[in-house]
Amino acid sequence: MKSIVILISGHGSNMQAIVRAAQAEQWPVRIAAVISNKADAEGLTFAARLGIPTSVVSNKDYPDRAQFDAALQVEIDRYMPDCVVLAGFMRILTAPFVLHYAGRMLNIHPSLLPSFTGLATHRQALAAGVKVHGATVHFVTPDLDHGPIVSQAVVPVFDDDTEATLAARILVEEHKIYPLAVRWFIEGRLRIVDGCVRHHQ
């Protein structure tokens, strides 16, 4: 049975979607831990209620990104996960950390990558006047918001959309594609070939 560790910084709605899907669909997986960089992250309460181990590695306790990432890596590796899942984990990760989990760390980004990397993706999309927007699940590489794409969801952009309405429409889709992508990983159905993800049965 494979195991996953999920990293969050707040409410953890994608983490909750993954946990619920894993339980409802009886994935062959153990959710080994939910780890946050913020002690007051609401998602920790959800995980603890279900008996999932939780821990906090606060970035404020470390003088720089490298030392924080090193401490976080030690905490993650205690659980020996097959996959590390970033679910609203609001930290830019250093290259050594990312490379340590190469090919086994997933992230979801609220845009159709490679468009609109970084923050405020919905504002970027509205400013650009795009007619469709969405979310992307990808493997994490040292390049921020790049990496082999696992799956994407597309939503229409309406003339009267605000950042909030667009974000809400996309979040619904995130809660569908992210659990599915994690399940594919757990079932061994994803391969990275020449920088692209190939699905196999």
Describe the protein in words.
It is a single chain. With 201 residues, the protein is of the alpha/beta class. It has two domains: 1-101, Formyl transferase, N-terminal domain (Rossmann fold); 108-200, 3-Layer(aba) Sandwich (Rossmann fold), CATH 3.40.50.170. Helix content is 35%, strand content 25%. The chain has helices at 13-24, 42-49, 65-77, 95-100, 121-128, 163-186; strands spanning 2-8, 29-36, 54-56, 83-86, 105-109, 132-139, 149-156, 190-193, 196-199. Strands 3-2-1-4-5-6-7 form a seven-stranded mixed sheet, covered by helices on one side. The chain has a two-stranded antiparallel ribbon with strand order 8-9. Helix 1 (13-24) crosses helix 6. The longest helix has 24 residues, at 163-186. It is globular and about 50 Å long. 37% of the residues are buried. The mean pLDDT is 97.
Distance between the termini: 18 Å
Mean pLDDT across the residues is 97
The helix content, as a percent range, equals 25-40%
| Count of all domains | 2
InterPro entries: Formyl_transf_N (IPR002376), Formyl_transf_N_sf (IPR036477), GART (IPR004607)
Active site: 109 (proton donor)
Keywords: Purine biosynthesis, Transferase
EC number: 2.1.2.2
